[in-house]
Design a protein that fits this description.
613 residues; alpha+beta; 24 helices; 13 strands
């Protein structure tokens, strides 16, 4: 069904159709085109351009069409329609008749396709966020499994200094966390609805675009109609995020390929993620990780193609923009697949702990420790560096490690050296010495691993059920607090107080309904407390309370808060989240503000706990 035939006397040539039509790839937008169409039907009804009967018929037909698409996502490919929009209208007309011809009143394919693509992006990036978290969790599990294992660290692909295997894995956790943060920020920016902007100048119907945006799950409507229909920043931004994340996965893959090689021999590939050679029986190839490296160029290429497509376009919509989809769809799909295979493959990767530790001790990697030792004996670092280098040369000439030199040999280079040098040159001593924040000292890595696990849990909470509270949430938050206050679990709070403190609150929701809340209250000293934590009755024990707490703890980290407290009758719940029992009397801020006025002041049955971030 052509959507533009009246102006033309003849049908389009087959060659033109083959070159022009987009259904062969934009058919994946079908669920989102139907979703947007339902919102548009409601907007037209609100403007009294559709009767209630027409609204019901259109919504019923669109529901039927949605069911068909859910059962067979490739159903549109069986038609010869130009694009997904014309397919939806043609199919709808076959289901409910001519009333379907009213659906396109006041809208354009320009604002519709922009809306569809944003809806698809929100759904796809939510899935990718889950895969990013799975890859992060796999790296954390790998780090926890080999927390104390030692391996050589490299610069210029030469052994440099020993590091913990867990420290190496946490470096990639940092990279993927940044990718997740970029993805989250991109989602916030793209969550604007173009629907109702028409072809370029706005719709001729005064639809309530804020209502449309809310119904579709957007944060709000796009502000400018010209920009709304022609903006593809979100496509470029997501491809840029995907490209950078793929670079991180490629670096991880290159490390693993090298560490699994016969030249390094530090890691061992499991059979489940390896392939063999058709000619050489001894080969065990890391094809998974080599493919990730290869696919990185493919994703980055889609980014460059999109940049070049957009760079010279005048306002507003141009057919060039049809080229936004194939590379975009493929780029995000490849990113998702690579994240998924990393999460799958890492549990099948082993560290040869003996070989890795032996390799860490080779290559005179403790030469810097020797220089540090000399600095500790009053020698300037530049002089200590030179002396350590001379001792390395002497050890090479003798064919022994640094610690294999006799004390007499060492003292021939520097009289400041005594027999305690051998303890300083031990692998464990050098590792422990790297105890500044971010270093590979075991105690620091253990702490970093714990904090990374907490951040991962907070990211998971934000991705699933928990978000920052809004003013519209106040009545439901008040209802939850009243419920638990009546049971003696919370202090009562007025709606006005909640409204004034709304920035402190987070809420948990299921299918758009608020089912839990919690607040992070910051005292004047910088101490923070988790309070007003409560879930709808019956949801306890399902992990949602933990999601709320982890979300609030992450907010505390972003605010630079070092210590968070909780006063509770459920200490076991907080203990599972890393809180430890604390002496309430050492919280003067809390005691003076709340406890002094509590009716249970002298018979308190709550336990104080705290966590250091």
């Amino acid at each position: 069904m052509s959507m533009w035939g009246g102006r033309f006397e003849q049908a389009s040539a087959g060659e033109f159709r083959a070159f022009n039509d987009s259904l062969k790839f934009d058919y994946v937008l079908a669920p989102f085109d139907i979703q947007a169409s339902k919102a548009w039907v409601n907007a037209l009804t609100q403007q009294q351009l559709l009767t209630k009967d027409e609204q019901a018929a259109l919504l019923s037909g669109l529901d039927t069409l949605m069911q068909r698409v859910e059962e067979n996502p490739a159903a549109p490919l069986a038609s010869n329609e130009e694009d997904i929009h014309s397919w939806v209208e043609a199919e709808l007309q076959s289901i409910i008749g001519s009333v379907a011809r009213k659906l396109h009143t006041g809208r354009s394919r320009n604002d519709l396709v922009a809306t569809d693509l944003r809806l698809w992006s929100l759904a796809k990036t939510h899935t990718i966020g889950e895969h990013l978290l799975a890859a992060i969790d796999a790296l954390l599990a790998f780090a926890e499994r080999y927390e104390e294992a030692v391996m050589p660290g490299y610069t210029h692909l030469q052994r440099a200094q020993p590091v913990l295997v867990s420290h190496w894995a946490l470096a990639y956790v940092e990279m993927l966390e940044r990718d997740l943060e970029r993805l989250t920020q991109s989602r916030e920016r793209l969550s604007q609805s173009p629907l109702g902007c028409g072809a370029l100048a706005g719709s001729g119907i005064a639809v309530e675009r804020h209502d449309i945006a809310t119904e579709l799950g957007f944060n709000g409507p796009c502000r400018n109609s010209l920009d709304a229909v022609s903006d593809r920043d979100f496509v470029i931004e997501l491809l840029a995020t995907a490209s950078l994340s793929m670079v991180h996965l490629s670096r991880l893959s290159e490390d693993i390929v090298f560490y699994c090689s016969g030249e390094a021999g530090l890691f061992l590939l499991g059979d489940a993620i390896s392939s063999g050679s058709s000619l050489m029986p001894q080969k065990k190839n890391p094809d998974v990780f080599e493919l990730i490296r290869g696919k990185t160029g493919r994703v980055a290429g889609h980014l460059q193609a999109m940049m070049m497509t957009v760079k010279g376009l005048p306002l507003a919509y141009n057919k060039d923009m049809q080229e936004d989809k194939e590379g975009f769809f493929d780029g995000l799909e490849q990113w998702q697949q690579c994240l998924a295979i990393v999460a799958y493959a890492l549990p099948h990767l082993q560290v040869d702990m003996q070989a890795a530790q032996q390799a860490a001790a080779l290559g005179y990697s403790n030469a810097t420790d020797l220089a540090d030792y000399l600095v500790g004996h009053g020698i300037a670092f530049r002089d200590a560096h030179e002396l350590s280098g001379k001792l390395v040369l002497l050890a090479i000439q003798q064919g022994v490690p640094l610690e294999g030199l006799s004390l007499a040999d060492m003292q021939s280079v520097s009289a400041a050296i005594s027999d305690d040098v051998y303890a300083a040159l031990a692998l464990s001593a050098g590792m422990s010495r790297r105890s500044a924040l971010g270093g590979t000292a075991p105690v620091k890595v253990h702490s970093a691993l714990r904090r990374a696990r907490q951040r991962s849990q907070a990211h998971a909470a934000a991705l699933t059920h928990v978000r920052q509270a809004k003013l519209t949430d106040v009545p439901k938050i008040a209802e939850l607090i009243r419920y638990w206050a009546a049971k003696g679990e919370h202090l009562p709070r007025q709606e006005q107080d909640i409204m004034q403190a709304i920035h402190q609150f987070a809420v948990a929701e299921i299918d758009g309904e608020i089912v839990g809340c919690g607040a992070l209250y910051v005292f004047g000293t910088g101490l923070a407390e988790i309070r007003s934590l409560g879930l709808q009755e019956g949801l306890q024990g399902k992990g949602m309370g933990a999601e709320l707490v982890n979300f609030l703890l992450d907010q505390a980290r972003h605010l630079g808060i070092a210590r968070v407290i909780a006063l509770t009758r459920a200490p076991a719940f907080f203990a599972k989240l890393g809180f430890t029992i604390a002496d309430k009397s050492r919280w003067p801020e809390k005691v003076m503000k709340d406890c002094e006025f509590c009716p249970r002041k002298h018979a308190c049955d709550e336990t104080g706990l705290e966590i250091r971030l």
